[in-house]
Write a structure and sequence with these properties.
Elements lengths: L1 H5 L1 H21 L1 H5 L15 E3 L21 E2 L21 H4 L26 E2 L4 E2 L11 H10 E2 L2 E2 L2 H11 L9 H15 L4 E4 L5 E4 L2 H10 L1 H4 L12 E3 L6 H6 L8 E4 L2 E4 L5 E2 L15 E3 L17 E3 L12 H4 L3 E5 L5 E5 L3 H6 L4 E9 L17 H17 L2 E5 L4 E13 L2 H7 L28 H7 L11 H17 L2 H11 L4 H12 L1 H13 L24 H20 L5 H10 L12 H6 L6 H14 L6 H17 L4 E3 H22 L7 H5 L3 H8 L8 H15 L6 H28 L1 E5 L5 E8 L5 E3 L2
Parallel strand pairs: 2-4, 13-15, 17-19
Antiparallel strand pairs: 1-3, 5-6, 7-8, 9-20, 10-11, 12-14, 15-16, 18-19, 21-22, 22-23
Helix pairs in contact: 16-17, 18-19, 20-23, 20-24, 23-24, 24-25, 28-29
Amino acid sequence: MDSHKKSARHRTKLAQLNAFYQMTAAGLGGSTHQNRPDRQSPPGGPPSDIDIEDDYIPAEQDDESLSEEDDDQGIDPGQFGYRHDESDSESDGRLDEEDWSWSGEQTLGEDFEPNEQDIPTTGSTSRPQNTRRVPASSPWYPFPSLDHLIGSLILGQLHSIMSRNLYNHLRVILTLRHVNLPHWDTLRRMRSRMRSMLKMEPSENQSVLLNKTFTLNVQSIVGNELANPIVAQHLEFYPHDPRGKDVFALYQSQKWREELGPDSRVQMVPSEGKHFYIYEPPKGGLRANAPAGSRQFDLHLPSIIPWFHPDLIEIPVDQFQKTYSELTTYYGDSYVELCGNRFIACGSGFQKVDIPIPNPWRVRACGKIIRHVPVTLYADNTSGNKSKRWNKHAGPLEIGEPIIEQINKLSQEGCVTYDALLEEEVLMVVVPLCFLADSPMAAEVTNTPNPGSSNNPCRVCHLKCPQGEVRSTISYIQDFFGIPQLPEPRHWSETQTRTEELWMSSQTDTVKEQERKLQLYGLRDRISLELAERKRDNLEERLRIIQIEDQTPHRKKNPWLKLLSFDGTKDTPVEVLHVILLGPVKYLWRDFMGRITPTQLPQLEARWRAFNTDGLNIPPIQPRYMIAHWKSFVGKEFRVVLQAAPFVMFPFMDTDLKLIWSALCALGSYVFQTCIKDMDTYIRELKNHIQHFEFHLVKMSGRWANKPKIHMIIHLEESILRFGPASLFATEKFKSFNGIVRENSIHSNRVGFVDSIWEVGLRVFYAKINKCIKIGIQQENSMTILSKEGRYVYVPVEVSKDGSLSVFG
């Protein structure tokens, strides 16, 4: 970068830019530019301290007179509970290398704070002599001025991003109309300060395989959503029990409601100003079974109580009257003290476990309400249909390690954050709900082999094929299609135990013996296998890995094995995009197009052109594209094919092929439902449709047993029972982020591109905070800000007739 700045070509470009800039300013007329009404001091008032525009360039100034400015100008860190250095300084300068180069260094600033006596307009932006901070009462807070907000919007949001050169070009053009936007570097530093304000700076980590990864703080991400009233009003913090009727949301999932452990499930519910916790005896409004005497006694309960146990009864929470500490006997003795401040959980046999009273989560909450927030985890590459030459990325095991540590801490201890709905601080607890990805990434997370080329292709059950030729036997085909039943299911605890056993085998057994055990167990931990290979081949790596075994032994294995409240065999649901659309739909579509003769292509194109898409809520079909690029379809095209097949493709099929496609279309109509009216009926009919489709498929050819996705369809019903409609755990809604990340990497500086990609999240925040302030004012006349103590507070606001915003408090 330094050599580039010193090159003759770079100096020539800078001279041309400065000459063009000065010519433009001269064309406007010096007197007009200096005596505009918006640059004059208010009548009768003191002289304005805003003297120089951020794009005003004195021609006489030399390059050596440039000096660095303090980057804390513009946004007041003190308003957000951060320390602030008051030593601000600034000097003006002409455009030089620091202004126009693609350097990631902090350059000269042109930040601006509007006069408090003026209403900001696009023509009133200029630069102060002394740097100041934006107060929270500013109409455009947290932006320093309206021009800074406009400049950020012009730079683009999410899918539409403007390059630095184009923005500078547009900025120069707008000066012809006396619109002076902030410099690109000014906006970049402003966004950097906003990231610091949100405490969401990316942190750099080094994986156990010595690859660099970057992560954001999970606590900040989820905490900011709770503090946003626009988002918080749509969140559910308690699981619902729909009784199998009208299932349409993840908060109705079976896992959240029934299958979390005692320490991970929802712990408390507030009622009438009191907090009632599980594993604490309350007093109801009907009767209290407190003993009358003062002798000590024990409270027993089963260690495992199924959700639908016949002995369980429902009691509305509003009938709870007293918490555990308020219960007393007839003689006034403490009910809890007499039972030894504990429950005794009785397990199988004579095993007994003490459960303390009060609930440990009550102690951690310190009187705060607990917000239980389950999250879904998603991993994917960003290649799309473009070349993967530059798509170098770490795998989900390395990326997930720091995230898993954060989630485990949040699920065990929680953290204090602000709830915009309650307008008070709460204790936030985060638990993982499921992991969404394509089949190879899901296989990595679950320590199973890549299904495409494995003799153990299923991550859910023990479908096994010891040798390649066995795939053609009737026994394997029966296991593959679940006739009469599926193979034995995998268990996550067994995977954890056998992974440790395989690591010990890699240290003591031969490579051939280790490979035999890998095939026997159907497991393949990418982390431990890579470490074992490096340990054998490189002395320095051997010493480093021995140190890892001694100091951090958990790092030598897949980090997902230690994620709390996560079952890899059940919480990696069958994803319909990769398993259905990119599975049988893709296979059968290519088979169909392979049968079409060149003379039939014009007729097929005509049928695509005649197909009406009005009832499908999709854009019009491009018939030429459907014919010319049928080998390069992505998920959305395969969805169109599935919907249009009976009307466009059936005239070109024989009877057997029509039966297969009819069964597939009927299956698709069930799979893509967004609301399940009756779960029992739905699962029964879905299972019949799956069996019907695979029956016709295997009649076509037994070689379909070579496609693992055909087998994974059978496990779809288990995923729907656990989480709800398949659309809830489909990755199609996440695919749109691929283009966003790709665009930001294209417009990065090619050096610190992680920061450039991270600005995606900041742009999302821009949209959220603008919408939040607008709607919050209209509905509640208040907004959320951070106080100097670093706490979220709710303050009243008022909107005047001219649209300005006033904050009180």
